[in-house]
Design a protein that fits this description.
Bound molecules: zinc ion
Number of helices: 14
Distance between the termini: 18 Å
CATH superfamily of one domain: CBS-domain
Shape: elongated
Order of helices and strands: EEHHEEHHHHHHHEHEEHHEEHEEHE
Structural class: alpha/beta
Radius of gyration: 26 Å
CATH architecture of one domain: Roll
Length: about 400
Amino acid sequence: MGTSIVLFRVFDIEVRVHWSFVLILVYGAFMYGAGPAGPLVGAAYGVLVIILLFVCVTLHEFGHALVAKYYKVRVGSITLLPIGGVANLERMPDKPMQEFLIALAGPLVNFALAALLLPLIILVVGMQVSAGTVQGGLWQVLRGTLAGAVQPGVSNLLVYLLATNVLLGLFNLLPAFPMDGGRILRALLAMTMPYVQATRTAVLVGRVFAVLMAIWGIMGGGIILMLIAFFIYVGGGAEREAVESRAVLRHATAGQALSHNAISLYASERLSRAVDLIMNSYQTDYAVLDLSGNFIGVLTRPRLVAALKSQGSDARVVDAMLRAEAVPVVTPATTLDQVWEKMATSASRVVAVKQQTQFLGIITLDDLSEVFNVLGAALAGGDRPTPPGEKPQPGEEQPAPGHAADV
Ligand SMILES: [Zn+2]
């Protein structure tokens, strides 16, 4: 995400914030600025409330992220958006029990925070009661605090955070895939049925919730609820497609996907030769060999286009190619779903296939797409999901990595 900035980094996880987060701070300032405390104090309090709210959201995301890391799933970053946070996991673990625990950890953090806040609130309010700064018994004061939480004050703030954490925990547990509750549902279903079928069922249940939420939003629940409904509807579909794609690609190996008539380029050749080749075949990415036939790099279509613009067609292939060290390596026995995953985690549209040190060929995202179309047609019949290569991605085409999203 190019429009977010890095706030800090802990446990090797970047915490980023999207620029639109500023909007929610402004919203908080306006909401509380219009309250009884007056515009200035109210606005400052509003900003504080929103920041603390997002501290809780961040901790929730760390709940997911740290359990994921425990199961050896790499977590690239946590991004804060106005409607919540997203922990970017490189993949979802295959074992349903692990996904279950990763999903559950987020809401559990919120319940734990609430459990920590409760004695603190009783302490603070108890002190106020005994010091005589507020009138009435402990429960009376607590009830009043809950009702008047918009007013600045320590106990009001603590009560607000307690209520928010309970609500955040419960809301995320709604079985609306890809929200946490939906992931828990998918994991539970996956223990009794195939993963693809479990995902389809969870997405369907999630979409029912999305429609209900959208209706509630239109009836007066607010724009945020409608945004969340949209996110559930679209996000669920996208993830179902990814799961279906992986299930199809699992049926073939890298060795089977290698094209035996693929053309290679030599390092000293000019870019004009690559242009000729692209014009006369469907091949868009070329392995580059040295004079002894060793694999030294790949000339991908985006690289070729960029080099033609900056250096012209007389430039040499070796100066435009992606060096072999930067190309992920797989073996002929690697299944294509793992190849796809490798491309996603390394943000590369190409992998090299090697048997020990012997170079056998390259596989590109386009090749995966091609295999997918053939296999998908053979396996799934009419109900075909989107091939991985056809998903719109920023920059060079990349398959979408798995991610855990939240509100
Ligand atoms: Zn969550």
